[in-house]
Structure formats: C-alpha cells, structure tokens
Amino acid sequence: MIEKQKTILIIEDETSLRSALSSKLKKNNFKTYECGDGKSGLKKATTSHPDLILLDVLLPKMSGIAVLKELRSNDWGKTVPIIMLTNVDSAETFAKQKSTDKKTLQYLIKAEWSLGELVKQIELTLK
Amino acid sequence: MKAKNISNSGDFPDARLGGREYISILQSILYNSPTGVALLDVSFHFILMNDSLASMLGTLKASSVGKTVDDLIPWATKELFKDMKSVISNGKPKTNIEISHTEKGTIRYFSVSLYPCKNRASQIIGIGFMMNETTDLVISKKQVESGNKRFRILIEKSSEIISLINKQGEFQYTSPSTETILGYKPKDLINTNSLSLIHKEDLPFVQKTLKSLVSGANSKVFITFRMIHKNGTPRWMEGSGTNLLADPEVNAIVANYHDITDRKIFEENLKQKTEELIKYSSDLAEANVKNEAILNSVGEGLIVTDELGKILLVNAAAENMLKIENSAVTGKPLANIVIMFDSKNNKIEPQARPIIQALESGKKIITKDYLYQRSDKSKFPVHTTTTPIQLKGKIAGTIVVFRDVTQEKAIDRAKSEFVSLASHQLRTPLTIIKWFTARLLAAESSKMSESAKLDYIEKIYKTNERMVELVNAILNVSRVETGTLSIQPQQVNIQATCESVLSEYSTPIQNKKLNIKTQFSKKIPIITIDPELLRIIFLNLLSNAIKYTPEKGTISIKLDSRDDKVSVEFKDTGVGMSLEQQEQLFTKFFRTEQARQIDPEGNGLGLYIIKSILQEIGGTISISSEKNKGTSFTVLLPEKSINKKGNSTLIESKA
After folding, report:
1. Complex ipTM value
2. What is the C-alpha to C-alpha distance for residues A100 and B389, in angstroms, rounded to an integer?
C-alpha cells in the first residue's frame, strides 16, 4: 500500500538550515515547500495546505508567532500540526498555547535536535 | 394746760395787741412752718403739734393731743429721752439731736431741737419740740464722708504715688505710698528736689518735661522714667504730670506715677524671649530651607505623611513624577492622591496600601513593580519603600520613597530580549555546524560528492566566523560596561583605517550593488587613538549602512577636520528612522522595528558600543535621520584621545 506523500512547509530564514532540513526530509520521502520569511510562509500555507509546518520564530517581514496566530484564526489552519522550530530561549511564551494545543503545536530548540531525530518527531506527529 | 399760758414775756412791741392776738399770730406761724413743731408737757405728752410734724410722724394732728412721745415716736432713742429730761431739769435747750428710723427699707434721718418752755415764774412747764427731716442732707454728707475716706485710703495705700511739686521740682506733698515704693518717708522728702531721685540717664528728659509743664507748653504729660530707690536700685516709673499751678487750691504740679519695674523686667524678658524665638524660628527656617533643598535634590520621589496617611510633604522629584504640586496635595490622604495598582494592573484598595500596612505594623514595607497613577491618569512602574516614623515610641507618620523604574523595566526587557537573541544567535550557528558536520560524518554512506562536501565545510567555516564576531561584540559590551576596555592610543592615519574597513566589506557592497562615495579632506591630521577601537567604530557604522540601505543605494563617507577635531560622516540612503527611535538608538540592545525586519540577527549592540567607546576616549556621535530617506551619523574624534572617563558623549538628535 502506497501512502500518500505528506507535504511539509519549512518557514526558515537561515538558508543553510532550510536547505539541510529540506534535503533530509526529501530523503525521507516527504514533499517540502521552503519559505525564507513569515509573510510568504503564511501565504504558502493557506494556498497549499501542507500536512505539517516547521515554523521558525525569528523571521523577516512577519514573525513566527504572528504567522501562528494568523493560521490559528483561519479555518484550515486551526488543526494543522505546527512545530515551532527555533533557537530563541523563550519557551514560556508558548506555555499557554502548548497546554491547550499539545497535539498540534510543539516547540523545539533546533540546536538540541539532530536532523534524524527531527524527522522521527515529524513522522510521530503525523501518525 | 392751755396755750394761753404761753404768753409773752412782756417786752414784745406789739404787746398792746393783747395777749390773745399775739398768741394766734404765733400759732399761725408755727402751724405753717415746714419745721415740725410741737409742745410737750413735762411728762412728754403732746399738747399740740403742727401739720408738718404730724406728717413727719405719720399721724393726725387732731388725734395727737394727749399722746406721749413713746406713742408717736416709737423709734425715739434713749438719748432723746435723756435730753428731754435734761431740758426739763436744767432748762437748757438741746439742739440738733439726730434720730433716725427705717421705714419700708429706707432710712430717714431727723434733727430734733428741744427748748424749755417756762411760765412767768420761770418754771419749766413743758418742752418746745422742733424737728426737721435731714435724710437728704445726712445721706449726702455720708457719701461725702465715705468718698473722702475712700480717697484717703486710695492715696495712702495705693501703689500710685501722688506728689505735688513746685516749679523748681521740690516736693510740696507726696503720698504715703512713696515709702513703700521708693523707701523714703514723705516728710523726709518735703522741700527736697524731686529731680534728685531721678535716674541720671533719664534726668535730662524729665527736666525738659517739667519745664514744658511749668511753661504751660503742655498741661498734661505722660512719661516713663527711672527713679532711684532709697536702697540705690533703679525703679521704672510710669505716670503723668498735670499743671495745676493756676489752681489756687493746689498751686503745684501734680505728679502721679507708679512702679512698673516688674512689668519692665517682664517686658525685657519677653523681648529677649521673642528675639530668641525669632532667631530660633529663623534658624529653623534656614534648617528647613536646607532640608527642603536636600529633599528636593534627592532623585527619588519622597512623600511624608502624618499618622493618618495624610500628605505633609512632597519633594520636587515626586511632584515631577506624579505631576502633582506639593501645595495642592498637602493635608490630603495619600491614598486618594496617588492611586496604586499591582503588577497585574488591579487597583490596590486604600486599606491594602503599603502606607496603611506600615502605619499598622510599624514595619518598613517594600513593594516592587507596582504602578503609580499620575494626576493625568497615566501610570508608571515604581519600587516603593514605606518607612514608619517612630517618635517617642509612637508612629507619627510615614516616609514613602519611590523610584520610577520605567527605564529599568525597559532595560530588563531589553536584557531578556538580548538573552533570547543571544541564545538564538549562538545556537543558530551551532545548529548549522551540528547538522552539517553530522552530514559530513555520514558522507560515505550517503555518497556525497566532493563539491557538496566542500560546500558544507565552507558553510561551517562561515558560520564559525559569525560566531566569533558575535562573541567579540558581547565581549566588547562587557568590557565597556565593566570598565576593563584597554585603550592603547597610537598615531593613526584615519583615512587608511577607513579604506581598510571598506575593503573588508567589499563583498556585501558588491552583492547589494551599493554606490560608495568617499570625500577625504587633505587637511586631516594624524590622530592619536586606539586603532582597534577606531576600527570597531568604523566597522559598526559601515555594516549598519550596508545592512539598512536597499540595493543600488548610496553610502557617502566624508572625513574632515573641524577645529581641533576630526569629523567622520557616514551617510546612507537607507530605511531611516523616526525622531522617537533616534532618541533610543544608543540604548543598549535597542533595535528599530525596521531593523528587526531587515536583519533579525542584529544584536542591538553596535551603536551602544560606539557610544561607549567615544565616551571613554572623549569623542561624540550625532545622528540625523529621516524615515525612508536615510540616516547620517557624524563622529567627532579628538586629535588626541583621552584615556579616562571625563568628557561625556553628546548625542544630538536632528530631524
């Protein structure tokens, strides 16, 4: 049985990280979209409806938090799993949302995760 | 006995009228006289009386005959009877016998005279009784007597001396009180000169006063002067002198005066006390001024309240912070004047206020991150310390000291923001290095091409460079802040430094197709400055200009000499900023919104570092910017940089 290929939207301004993530995910049979700023990332999400979004917090043009709020106020975006992927040490900012939005929202520190572990986490989230 | 028995004694000129006629004339005179007249027999029976007497005795003339003196004059005294008996026995008249009686509460006085009535044989056959009412006379006489007595007592016993002196000032009379007041017996003073008793210092004007009285220039004067007591002590006198020389009864200057020494001493004491009080209060006022000056120069807000929490004093800092005026709020409850909110913006009820807690517990109450509301309803965060004032074991009030922590809160925010940013900026390169080295390590199994491997290694290298830069910036901030920045001035060619920095940034300049214009004056001297610090200044200014100027923009760099300084101008055609942003620009960690969008990784430390370095070496930086038009920074460098803190950095802001 061939599973439908899942699509992942990567919103990340750091080119190196974005490309590394993308190539790793492709190798693991995901389809990826890449965006370098919050504004284009939000647009891509609402037009292509990915299965999961990897969302950086510090982004040009529109911050990851603003993108998250926009998505959650949108019908489609309410339930899409989002992994906030950042190096900003302000987990408490998301504590509230995390408590009510556990399944669909995660907050991960990039530097603490290897690419392999990240892929596993994404697969787990999409099961 | 018959009236006709009272006949003439024989020699009366009109005796020819006949006895009978004579008697009737006498009778008519007697009957009509206002003097009460009666005839008594020797046993004191009334034989006859006239109307006046009847009316005086309150009886009827007709019914009086045959009545005794006892009957009609029950208040007759024993003396009267005695006198009547003596008149009968020795035939001599008794006149002006005083008798009185009280009738309905008012006393009436009478004067009685008794004359013996003799027959032709000179035998006493009766008494002629004559009575006049003397009530008015007696009373006025008594009044005069008692008045005299009172007057005498007044003169003799009073503390007022009354002296009569002649034109020369000699005593003609002086009242007995002279002895009690001045120690001299009046008789010893008579005919001595009163001026000899006057205090030396007061003599001239007393003499002058006497002269003016004698000459008639003044008829009455009031003076205060000193006299010498017999025991040698000076006594203060106050009194008046009246010229009665023209009055024949007096023919003297009447001086009446009294001792006011005690009063003078009291007044002197009072004056001294008053002067002390005035001095004390002026000292106090001076101390107050000093205290007030101290209070007003305290940067912290300070409010003093009484034991009820009512405002007694507000210093200048508190006035400014709360936008209130001391004079307008004094006496009002602090809780009403300054509304307080907790850190979650909930209003704190008056009874829960620190001031009430301090008053009730007697303990110092400290709050942090509460909000005070200004008179214009705006709020600001404060740290407050409310200390009860203990006075003799009682709480007499409180002192509230507070500090506006808006700035500190902003710095705190900026700090935590910096921690977030730093964590991001440190972790991001680490993540890149982690992920790429992991892929390189797995290169054999993933059949990675050599060029891909090189690409990864280059990425790791560049990422490492970025980290070095960041760590340096953080270290520089730390050095500046802890004062451990080492400054080693050398002779530096500023143009060469500028060109070197430009060449360092040639790649990003080319990438953004930026147009660089340089204008270097030939008059620029060699300056003495730490070359590494100068490089940091130039690097930060240039990298900012490159970052915030859009592609194909222009960056102009101008070097010039200005007086004994060198000016360096970096002008771009970048995003620019508002005046408000310019004011905060040199604050540590501050970043404008535009800057955040353009470069999320900036650390907000560059301009702060420049400002701090210039502060150390005695230079200045100023900014001129317009939003969406561009920004220009001008740095003024001293030809010889100082090596210690002193010259403060001026930040000028131009629209």
Report:
1. 0.76
2. 51
Distance CA B264, CA B270 (A): 9
- Reading the block at residue B37, the tokens are 């007249």
Of A17, A58, A60, the CB nearest to B431: A17
Instruction: Quote the CA–CA distance of B562 and B375 in Å, as a whole number.
Output: 48
Q: How far apart are CA A109 and CA B232, in angstroms?
A: 109
Cross-chain Cβ contact A89/B419 below 8 Å: yes
Distance from CA of B492 to the nearest CA of A (A): 39
Residues of A contacting chain B (CB within 8 angstroms): 13-14, 16-17, 20, 57-61, 86-90, 109-111, 114-116
Phi–psi pair at B536, nearest 5 degrees: -60, -40
SS3 category, B38: strand
A89, A113, A114: best to mutate for the B interface, most B CBs within 10 A: A89
Total-model pTM:
0.43
| CB spacing of A88 vs B420 below 8 angstroms | yes
At B210-265, the pLDDT tens digits run 888 888 888 888 888 999 999 998 998 888 888 888 888 778 888 888 888 888 88
Q: Rg for chain B (alpha carbons), in Å?
A: 62
Token pair, residue B320, equals 């400014």
Q: Which of left, alpha, beta for B404 (phi over 0: left; psi -120 to 50: alpha)?
A: beta
Q: Under 8 Å CB-to-CB from B345, ≥6 apart: which residues?
A: B371, B379
